[in-house]
Each structure stands twice: as structure tokens, then as C-alpha cells.
Write a structure and sequence with these properties.
With 405 residues, the chain is of the alpha/beta class. The chain folds into two domains: 184 residues, Rossmann fold; 119 residues, no CATH class. It is built from 13 helices and eleven strands. The strands form two sheets. Strands 1-11-2-3-10-9-8-5-6 form a nine-stranded mixed sheet, with helices on both faces. α4 links the parallel β2 and β3. It is rod-shaped.
């Protein structure tokens, strides 16, 4: 509280405003921030989302399999693969497929087993006959076809994203609505196993029906199988920052960035050049006019107000038209002089001047009458300015000398 008390009013207001703004920002983020994103469709062995595959990976590790993630380029494991190896490619990213085909072929030529899933997984293997699914992509029960090792897994549950065209090279293990969804075939010295969907190894689907049996049968026996779970075709290797996705850490980062911006702004404001406060005038022109009018009204000096306006007008009349102030308003010379300069306006102007002279002699003059005379003088001031711009009539001026010899 002592810190606030030491600040001036504007700094205190600024600090309190920034604090209130930060508080409102935090409340809004708390109320409207989205829930943790669990819709990532990538079947990654790092992901705990429903479509992730961390449960399947951990199951293999705890069941005695020699399993390891492969996040480096596939060339790193090409020399490690043999006939006792299984490499899992769970729906690799499409942009990584073309460059990886030759390495997959090399793995198969060395006798390795390759488990691929989805449409992009089918594109990864040689001699593939994969195509986009004509099904509704809803989950369906796979029907066993034949008496192969995989077909004996029981009833499986998939949500087919692709299907396999009939091919003499492949053995259809399961169908869904008449379309091949699980196939196997030999390639080189190795074996290709293709699933139309990754659901049997995903966190949300590995426990459905007999999916776990299909998964373990596709991997092979734990005693003599080394499993490489590929993550290199899912993009870059996960970094520490990638684990913050779907958590409040990023929202906290935005809050800290806002707080830093507010601190920089407030510090920059105090460190900038000092400028003096604007000097407020004690009285504006309109306030002066009101004050003078109030004085006239309080003293009932209407004659003085008329006299001041009359004297000002006569001084201007002498300076611009050369008509002396000493010349009476009723004098014939005044009539002639006004006619030369004001023509049709000369007569009403002379009447106004006569009325103003008479008003100065009155003992009592109403405010309405005084105002009428002053307003008339104001109007004739404007008329005089217009006439003098057209016909300058200043004594000593060449034009004046020519017209008034």
C-alpha cells in the first residue's frame, strides 16, 4: 500500500487498470479455453489420445517384446532388420511415403515383417493394391476369410479408411461388407500385413472385440521378435514442447507475454521524455464577454454599453472612410459622406447613429433597446468592411485622393 501511496494519481490509475485488464484476461481464458485436444487422428506411440497408440506400444514392452521406437531415418535400422524383425508403420504421413518406399523394400528383402495400416500405409509397400474406401467409414465387424493365421484371430472391429483391390499376390484375411480390409502377402523374403484401419492398435480400439488378438498375431511371438515402431514417418521427432499441446501451459505463456508487454509499455511511458503540462488560461474570450455583460447588467449601465459600441464604430468609420468622430450624426455633412460610401445603406446607418447619440443622453434605457442599437452597429460594421474592400477610402490613399481632391 505504501508503494501505491507514493505514486501520483495517473500512475496509480495506470497500474490498477493494467492489473484489472490482466485479471479479466485470465478469467476469460479460464472460462472459454478449449478442453484438452483428444481428436488427434495420428496413431502415434507417444499419444494417449483415443486415436493414439501408446497403450499398444506399452503393452508390447510389458509383455516381453523387444520393442523400440524408430524416430531416426529408416536408413538407421536397415542393417538391424532380419527375418525376426517386425516394423510397424501406423498410417504414415503422405508426404513421407515416397522417400521411404526403397527402405521398406530393403527391409522386406532381408526377410523382415512389415505391418502397415490405412491408405497411406498401403502406398508404402511394394505391389500394393490399396484404394480409398467405398464404405461409410463407420465401424464394422470384420468377417474372417479362409484359415490363415490372422483369420483365426476372431471377430475384429475396424473403421475402414481404405480397401484392397483383388490381387493374386495377396491373401485376404478379413472382409467388411465384401471389401478386403486385412490382407497379407509375400514380398522378397519378408511378409506384408496390411490393415484398412489402425483401430485394432489404437488406445480406443485395442480392447474392442478380438482386436488385441489380431494385433499380437500380426506382430509375432514375443520370444524371437524384435519390434521397431516407426515414428519417423509421422514427422519430426517429438520434442519437449510437443508434450505441451492440449495443456494450459500455452495459455499461461500467452498470459506471461501480455504481462511482459504491459510492463514494457508502462516502463517505456515513465522513461520517455517529460513534457510540461499545458497551461490553462484563466479566462477564455467568451468568458470575458460574459463577465463584461454581467457587469453591465448588474449596474444597469445600458447607456454605457451603447456608448462603447458607438465610439468603437465611429473610430473605425474615421479610419476607413475618413469621417471625423466630431461630426454629429444629424449634420448634413454626415448625410453626404455616408451616401458616398454606403449608398442605399446610408440612410438607415445615419438613423442608427442618431439613435445611439440620443441613447447616451437618456436617463433610462431598456436592455432590449440597447441590444437593438448594438446589433445594428455590428451589422453596419460588416457592411463597412465589404464596402471598403471594394472601394478603399483611407485618407492618404491614392484612390481616396483621386475621388476626393
Amino acid at each position: 500500500m505504501s508503494l501505491l501511496a507514493s505514486m501520483d494519481g495517473r500512475d496509480r490509475t495506470l497500474l490498477m487498470g493494467c492489473g484489472a485488464l490482466a485479471g479479466i484476461f485470465v478469467i476469460v481464458l479460464a472460462l472459454f479455453s478449449p478442453a484438452r485436444d483428444n481428436d488427434d487422428p495420428t496413431p502415434s506411440s507417444y499419444s494417449t489420445a483415443p486415436h493414439g497408440a501408446k497403450a499398444g506400444y506399452e503393452l508390447l514392452r510389458q509383455s516381453g517384446y523387444h520393442v523400440e521406437r524408430q524416430s531416426e531415418p529408416l536408413a538407421q535400422i536397415e542393417d538391424q532388420v532380419d527375418q525376426h524383425s517386425t516394423v510397424v508403420f501406423a498410417e504414415p504421413f503422405r508426404q513421407n511415403v515416397d522417400a521411404a518406399r526403397e527402405y521398406v523394400q530393403a527391409i522386406l528383402d532381408k526377410g523382415g515383417r512389415v505391418l502397415v495400416t490405412g491408405y497411406t500405409g498401403g502406398l508404402l509397400v511394394p505391389d500394393n493394391a490399396v484404394q480409398h474406401s467405398k464404405l461409410t467409414r463407420d465401424e464394422c465387424d470384420g468377417v474372417a476369410n479362409g484359415f490363415g493365421e490372422l483369420a483365426a484371430s476372431g471377430t475384429i472391429r475396424l473403421a475402414p479408411q481404405a480397401q484392397w483391390k483383388p490381387s493374386p499376390l495377396s491373401q485376404v484375411e478379413y472382409t467388411c461388407q465384401g471389401h478386403a480390409v486385412v490382407v497379407t502377402y509375400k514380398s522378397g523374403k519378408g511378409l506384408v500385413i496390411w490393415w484398412a484401419d489402425s483401430l485394432p492398435l489404437e488406445n480406443g480400439g485395442i480392447q474392442q472385440a478380438d482386436n488385441l488378438v489380431l494385433f499380437l498375431t500380426s506382430i509375432g511371438a514375443p520370444e524371437d521378435t524384435r519390434v521397431f515402431w516407426d515414428e519417423s514417418l509421422h514427422g519430426d521427432s517429438p520434442s519437449l514442447l510437443s508434450y505441451t499441446q492440449g495443456t494450459p501451459l500455452r495459455l499461461i505463456g500467452w498470459q506471461l507475454a501480455l504481462l511482459a508487454a504491459l510492463l514494457l509499455w508502462s516502463q517505456g511511458r515513465r522513461s520517455g521524455p517529460l513534457r510540461p503540462d499545458p497551461i490553462a488560461l484563466r479566462a477564455t474570450p467568451i468568458e470575458f464577454v460574459h463577465s463584461l455583460g454581467s457587469l453591465y447588467q448588474a449596474s444597469a449601465a445600458t447607456q454605457n454599453a451603447v456608448n462603447d459600441g458607438y465610439q468603437y464604430f465611429r473610430r473605425r468609420l474615421e479610419r476607413l472612410a475618413g469621417i471625423p468622430q466630431t461630426l454629429a450624426a444629424k449634420a448634413p455633412e454626415m448625410t453626404l459622406a455616408l451616401a458616398q460610401h454606403f449608398r442605399a445603406g446610408a440612410e438607415p446607418l445615419q438613423q442608427t447613429l442618431v439613435a445611439c447619440e440620443e441613447a447616451r443622453e437618456m436617463e433610462k434605457l431598456s436592455a432590449r433597446a440597447a441590444l437593438a442599437r448594438i446589433q445594428a452597429l455590428h451589422d453596419f460594421n460588416d457592411l463597412m468592411d465589404q464596402r471598403m474592400q471594394i472601394h478603399p477610402a483611407v485618407p492618404g490613399n491614392q484612390l481616396w485622393n483621386k475621388t476626393h481632391p
